[in-house]
Amino acid sequence: AARPALCPPAGSRTMSAAEDAEWLRRVRKQFGNIAGEHKEINLEEFKSALQVKESFFAERFFALFDSDGSGTISLEELLKALSLLVHGSQTDKLRFLFQVYDVDARGGVPAVTRRGARSPRAGSGCIDPDELRLVLRWCLRESAIALPEERLADLTWALFEAADKDHSGSITFEELREELEGFPEVMENLTISAASWLKPPPPTERSCRPRYLTRAYWHNHRGKLAFLGGYISLNLLLFALAALRHAGLGGWLVVARGCGQCLNFNCSFLAVLMLRRCLTWLRATPIAKVLPLDQHVVFHQLVGYVVLALAAVHTGAHVANFSRLARQDGRHALAEYLLSARPGAGGLGGTASQTGLALQGLLAAMLAFSSPCIRRSGHFEVFYWTHLSYISVWTLLILHGPHFWKWFAVPGCLFALEKVAGLAWRRAGGLRIVEVNLLPSKVTHLVIERPQFFRYEPGDYIYLNIPAIATYEWHPFTISSAPEQQETLWLHIRSLGQWTNKLYEYFQQPELPSPEPKPLSRSLREKRCRRWAQVGAVGAQLLANAGCYIDGPYGTPTRRIFTSEHAVLIGAGIGITPFASILQSIMYRYRRRKQSCPSCHYSWCEDLRDKEMTLRKVDFIWINRDQKHFEWFVSLLTKLEMEQAEQEPGEPFLEMHMYMTSALSKNDMKAIGLQMALDLLAAKEQRDSITGLRTRTQPGRPDWSKVFGKVAEEKKGKVQVFFCGSPALAKVIRAHCEHFGFRFFKENF
């Protein structure tokens, strides 16, 4: 997360003289860009520059900065106020905070548009409940939190009763300071999250050596690096052996033969890397600890690029050799060597040149249409149909190279068997979609009948085909239900592309308007804000038409979780889906191990560790952008909390951590009162006001250094971190894992 603009640089409590001068220079420069010739900024310019979502705090800050009540802020006024907030004492900052809250609740923020108006700094000197309620309402809006009025009233009274020490009916400055002393993290770094144009440049972390040369990186990626080393060495060996066999026939021919031998191996290896069923089986064997099976898709893409490069060099070397022969012969042109079948030229019937050129074109097309810009821009069909040309590629390779079939025999047979098994499974009959729930943020929850002999592990995924959406498209989705759930399979599908948007729109009935998302309230555990697509005759017909086919299951890195000692599960947004299955499986295991005394009916849970699960501790971290995203699995998490509460008292086996990135942190002056009120009310009611869970939802983004530092201090065993979310966040978490020596596993997302 970005450091607040007015905070001192990381690692120091105050700015140095050089940093202070640089900061002031930036302020003057940016102020000059906004103020123009008049050297003053008005309220609208201040609003556009300040990082606030609502105008309330911008108007309050503007009013307090405008010391002479002129309706504009000069550079001197701005520098004086900002210097006070940056370099001032805690008392100075608290005094500013108190003045922000000390506003007439009935009259609102006084107007500051004309010179000579009453200065809004002149407050009553105390904060009454109406003023506090007004500010908290704007705090909720600023943090993108929607709560009903009764919850706002509860928050107001929780904070007011805690701060009003003398029960006088108002909060004085001394009472506010006394209450804030109970929140040391707030007192340590109090800021107003200043304007983006005042942010100093982030400090650059300098290292004496690149990350890829550190010992931690090599330790955490030893499997992948060893595999890459073996792969490169094998290619070099194959090239060298082929080159030695054809030494003396000319340099270009030596290069062509060497690349051709490497192509024999790599084109067969491409099939091996996509044997999903075989790879899923290998995950249950000791080989999974040696080979980087989790990276098979990445390696498939890498080998694809290698094949294209080798093919280009192979073709170029042959063209150069043919050009040399054409010059020496004088009777045949280069075009005849390339386009005419000649006995002894290689390949079936001397067609090596023609099949080679065809292969080069097919490989280039496959690579071009496999790029992310094609796959993720709503043109999946282009990728799908061009990628099916692998059948033509392998056929042409058998015709082109006399020895390719020897390399391809075993991988090709396994690949064909997997395809036949998949087709047989699909042709066995379609499955019925039992229920469809349209959840907030365009998430489609599908409930599909589970086939009789369908077995899978927590975190596995399947390929889904719904002919009513697209006849030939198969898309992978993680199973979000536990294997112990015998009757149905759950899929939670976020609408991010063309197919997923079509799926959501297909079940969206125009005659049943979708209600506005409701704020989470006391009844959240029993009833969630959702829309049932099967309601009514039209919905029933949609379900009848929307049969589906599945292919799988296929394994993922999350299969390692139950063999870990201390697992840290991190899900960002819809990235929770693989962990939903795992958490539900844990809940079912709790139920199976629940014991009860026949005499006193005292119940407890036996130790969960067994031959299939060596877990000692699970930390579950869920990061969401806004409040409504928590509605996806909050009922499951509530059940987990209740199940765990029934076991013996002590340190919890499963610890949850919720983060809402749109909410302002406790260090931000626009959110201090709200976060204090949420803490106080959560402690009083033993539940969070945002999600309804016992776990308190933290504002902002996790501080990974503190999170992983706490995990390391617990010393529950070897720590393995499992992540599912955006690639950008994966890089950040991976770097922290390398620093702490944790194993990191990423789900493809």
UniProtKB/TrEMBL annotation:
UniProt-annotated location(s): Membrane
GO molecular function: calcium ion binding; superoxide-generating NAD(P)H oxidase activity
Listed SUPFAM superfamilies: EF-hand, Ferredoxin reductase-like, C-terminal NADP-linked domain, Riboflavin synthase domain-like
Gene3D superfamilies: EF-hand (1.10.238.10), Nucleotide-binding domain of ferredoxin-NADP reductase (FNR) module (3.40.50.80), Translation factors (2.40.30.10)
Recorded topology in the membrane: Multi-pass membrane protein
GO biological process, alphabetically ordered: defense response; superoxide anion generation
Domain FAD-binding FR-type, residue spans: 426-560
Keywords for the protein's UniProt record, in alphabetical order: Calcium, FAD, Flavoprotein, Membrane, Metal-binding, NADP, Oxidoreductase, Transmembrane, Transmembrane helix
Residues passing through the membrane, by range: 225-244, 250-275, 296-317, 566-586
Family annotation (InterPro entries): EF-hand-dom_pair, EF_Hand_1_Ca_BS, EF_hand_dom, FAD-bd_8, FAD-bd_FR_type, Fe3_Rdtase_TM_dom, Fe_red_NAD-bd_6, FNR_nucleotide-bd
Pfam families per UniProt: EF-hand_5, EF-hand_6, FAD_binding_8, Ferric_reduct, NAD_binding_6
Principal location class: membrane
Domain EF-hand: 53-88, 151-186
GO cellular component assignments: NADPH oxidase complex
Name used for this protein in its record: NOX5 oxidase
Source organism: Rissa tridactyla (Black-legged kittiwake)
